[in-house]
Amino acid sequence: MSKILVIAEHDSKTLNASTAKCVSCAGTFSGLEIDVAVFSTNGESLCTEAAKLQGIRKVLRVDAPVNGDPLAAVLAPQVAELAGEYTHVLGPSTTFGKDLMPRVAALLGVNQVSDIMEVLGNHEFRRPIYAGNAVLTVKADDNRKLVATVRTASYKACDTTGEASTESVSPQCEIPTHTRYVELKAQASDRPDLQTASRVVSGGRALGSAESFELIYDFADSIGAGVGASRAAVDAGYVPNDMQVGQTGKIIAPDIYFAFGISGAIQHLTGIKDAGTIVAVNKDAEAPIFEVADIGIVGDLFEVIPALKAKLAT
Amino acid sequence: MQKILVGIKRVIDYNVRVRVKPDGSGVVTDGVKMSINPFDEIALEEALRIKERGEASEVVVASIGVSATQQQLRTALAMGADRAILVKEEDAVSPLTAAHVFLKLIEKEKADLVILGKQAIDDDNNQTGQMLAALWARPQATFASNVALADGKATVTREVDGGLEVIEVDLPAVITTDLRLNEPRYVKLPDIMKAKRKPLEETSTEELGVARTGGVEAIKYEPPEARSRGVMVEDVDGLVQALKDRGLF
Ligand SMILES: Cc1cc2nc3c(=O)[nH]c(=O)nc-3n(C[C@H](O)[C@H](O)[C@H](O)COP(=O)(O)OP(=O)(O)OC[C@H]3O[C@@H](n4cnc5c(N)ncnc54)[C@H](O)[C@@H]3O)c2cc1C
């Protein structure tokens, strides 16, 4: 009997959307049972939420005082211990999953399949490499446990009409004390989350300053969009790091993506290739962003944005 | 602290437009510019700065790769590393094998801190540092954008999806670098000359007694599904019309 364990991601209050996307991915394997593990200090409401994920068999509630913070060194031995019963262990390709899952894989003595974008068989997958310049099909040994991360932009969240049961478990293992959580410095924002927003507006180096970036926020707010940026805009300090879209930032799949003053470097494009419609505004008619844009306009963003905002508002 | 070990991987330069071979057996590497993985350059820069602040006495760089990887190690020596180790391998090794090799090097070198790139821009795996930390049973501080060392501990700021996370880890530990940790220095010509005299030792996985771990086999390489070029509109009216035509507004 084959079984998949999905590791839930959350912020102690609600599940991250990546969890429902991992469950969707798990649902494309054949003939497997899917369980979801929730690690926290008091997982009651998180487990109630997880129990609704469509297609799962049960939720494993792993409450422990040490599980309050998402520390890979603390969680990995517990996941590895729970993994005993399972043939597959999946986590999201978010910074949480990228940090945790390879540590789990090493404890289990196996290699990991990173960033599954398509399941071809229970041990055969497609994944992007070279910043999305190539897609690699890999085959994992079916005699070993499979540890993998799921490229969440490739999957839609599963439905939440399920009624799975919850079981409390407490894996017996030694928890290291060499790693301590200090704090999360997050900028509070009422805007839609970049990773789940259906509309995203991004700005690049062309904005020139943090002040000018207000233009992007302002337009985004007028259409209810999340806000992203190129690496150049983050490096220059116009916006915080968590807004970077691309190979080494966030991989997103909104219905519509606006790129203002972004040249379209391959490292940026790999983060938006699953977007529904890409709109590019750039001064330079030769900018590579136009090779992938569905709608392009050669122009100065400082003129286009106010005009566009006004016209869409009417 | 005595020694920092830094991982260096030879990869296709990030400016090269990578192409898949027509037979799907890999990507084109003939005549293609090879460089140090950008995240590893950042790792080395960080190690050098730690040493220059007097917080470490030696920086050792190590790579697993073909003979030609000597070029990247020489560049690393020119940047300021004290010594280099090349673990010669004709074929690419898996992240878990690489982690086992580094564990052996840690034992041999008695390293107090290991700094690796968070991912290599070829396979984009993002695994080796975390695996090494697990095998070593030591802390990992991945995706670092700031590192401060004091009293046998490292306080590391990490770039995470939700913002910037700060953790504190006991040393020894493994740190993996993100883009904004630092800006690597340029190599100067006299340093390239000096680097030629710095020691570069060669060994192999066999010599180190590391067994390879496979289990994830590459079957086929394909070009990505291309997005096609769309329409160009003349002005904002045209843009609004195109958006409305698609039912997006
Ligand atoms: C290892 C590695 C990882 C990377 N990861 C990422 C990543 O995750 N995400 C990412 O984005 N990048 C990443 N990069 C960087 C990437 O290669 C590019 O340097 C970056 O995306 C460029 O950002 P940009 O398009 O904002 O800036 P530029 O390339 O400088 O482009 C600015 C554009 O703005 C246009 N412009 C200027 N003024 C105006 C105006 N007034 N109106 C309209 N258009 C204007 C210009 O014509 C130009 O096309 C990575 C690089 C490396 C080496």
Q: Mind telling me the CATH class of chain B?
A: Alpha Beta
Shape of chain A: globular
Structural class of chain B: alpha/beta
Radius of gyration of chain A over all CA atoms, rounded: 21 Å
Order of helices and strands of chain A: EHEHEHEHEEEEEEEEHEHEHEEH
Span from first to last CA of chain B?
Answer: 60 Å
CATH topology of chain B: Rossmann fold
- Greatest interface and its residue counts? A-B, 86 and 85 residues
Shape of chain B: globular
Tally of distinct domains of chain A: 2
Arithmetic mean of pLDDT of chain A: 97
Helical amount of chain B: 25-40%
What share of the residues of chain A lie within helices?
10-25%
CATH class of the largest domain in chain A: Alpha Beta
Written description of the protein model:
The complex is a heterodimer of chains A (314) and B (249). Chain A has helices at 17-26, 44-51, 72-82, 95-108, 214-223, 231-235, 266-269, 301-313, and strands at 3-7, 33-40, 58-63, 88-92, 112-116, 118-121, 124-129, 134-140, 146-150, 165-168, 179-185, 199-203, 226-229, 256-260, 277-282, 295-298. Chain A is of the alpha/beta class. In chain A, the strands form three sheets. Chain A has a seven-stranded parallel β-sheet with strand order 5-9-4-1-2-3-10, with helices on both faces. Chain A has a five-stranded parallel β-sheet with strand order 13-12-14-15-16. In chain A, strand 1, helix 1 and strand 2 form a beta-alpha-beta unit. In chain A, helix 3 crosses helix 4 and helix 5 (214-223) packs parallel to helix 8. The longest helix of chain A is centred in the N-terminal third of the chain and has 14 residues, at 95-108. The model of chain A has no long low-confidence stretch (mean pLDDT 97). Chain B is of the alpha/beta class and 249 residues long. Chain B has one domain: Rossmann fold (3-Layer(aba) Sandwich), CATH 3.40.50. In chain B, the strands form two sheets. A nine-stranded mixed β-sheet of chain B has the order 9-8-7-10-6-1-4-5-11, sandwiched between helices. A two-stranded antiparallel ribbon of chain B has the order 2-3. In chain B, strand 4 (58-65), helix 2 (70-79) and strand 5 (83-88) form a beta-alpha-beta unit. At the A-B interface, helix 3, helix 4, strand 5, strand 7 and strand 8 of A face helix 3, helix 4, strand 7, strand 8 and strand 9 of B. The complex binds flavin-adenine dinucleotide. Flavin-adenine dinucleotide sits between chains A (204-206, 230-233, 244-249, 261-263, 265, 267-268, 271, 281-284, 287, 300-302) and B (14, 38, 121). Flavin-adenine dinucleotide (FAD) sits between chains A (204-206, 230-233, 244-249, 261-263, 265, 267-268, 271, 281-284, 287, 300-302) and B (14, 38, 121).
